[in-house]
Write a structure and sequence with these properties.
Helix content is about 35%, strand content about 30%. It is built from 5 helices and 8 strands, in the order αααββββααββββ. It has an 8-stranded antiparallel sheet. It is globular and about 35 Å long. The N and C termini lie far apart (about 90 Å).
């Protein structure tokens, strides 16, 4: 009777291992880790300039006038098609968008060139990074040039060096206009 008991115990152990047991538990744990790992990794990744613009435009549709990173937030200025202006902040960790200021006034004519520009802030960022690889730190519309030129001024950071890239608002051509290596991008 002793050998029957051993055979029964061995059969029972085989059934547990085949239909569950530690192997199945380990496999289930691995599958759970695989499902949750990408979400956890995404939660830790900072929102870049492009992500900040997308989040801001989702909350306040329009045309981006400027984007600027300030520590843990992106400041995004948006002009709606009717000329209304909003100053938004986008948290770099969560991607949450907050309205700092939104005016109810229409366009006084000061934003016509921006609204009519062929090249958007998003396209200017892509052109600037293609011309000078790195991370976009700021984008600003500029139509105050003495010769009437309209362009985007894009700051691209690579390592401890920040490069200013002008992107023509009509052609999308990117031209490196200067750089500094003080690490803050302000040249101060």
């Amino acid at each position: 009777m002793h050998s029957k008991h051993k055979a029964y115990a061995a059969s029972a152990a085989a059934v547990v291992l085949a239909f569950g047991g530690p192997v199945a538990a380990a496999a289930a744990h691995t599958a759970d880790a695989a499902r949750t790992a990408p979400a956890a990794a995404l939660a830790r990744a900072d929102v870049d300039a492009e992500g900040a613009v997308a989040a801001a435009l989702k909350k306040y549709p329009g045309v981006v006038e400027s984007v600027d990173k300030d520590d843990a937030v992106w400041h995004v200025d948006v002009i709606a098609k009717d000329g209304k202006h909003a100053e938004l902040t986008v948290d770099t960790r969560s991607g949450n968008v907050f309205t700092e200021n939104a005016d109810g006034g229409g366009d006084d004519g000061g934003n016509e060139a921006l609204l009519a520009a062929k090249v958007t802030a998003q396209q200017a960022m892509k052109a600037a990074v293609a011309a000078h690889p790195g991370q976009v730190r700021s984008v600003e519309w500029d139509d105050d040039d003495d010769n009437g030129a309209q362009y985007w001024n894009v700051e691209v950071k690579s390592g401890d060096k920040t490069t200013n890239v002008h992107v023509d608002a009509t052609t999308g051509k990117a031209t490196v206009s200067g750089s500094d290596s003080d690490g803050d991008g302000n040249g101060d």
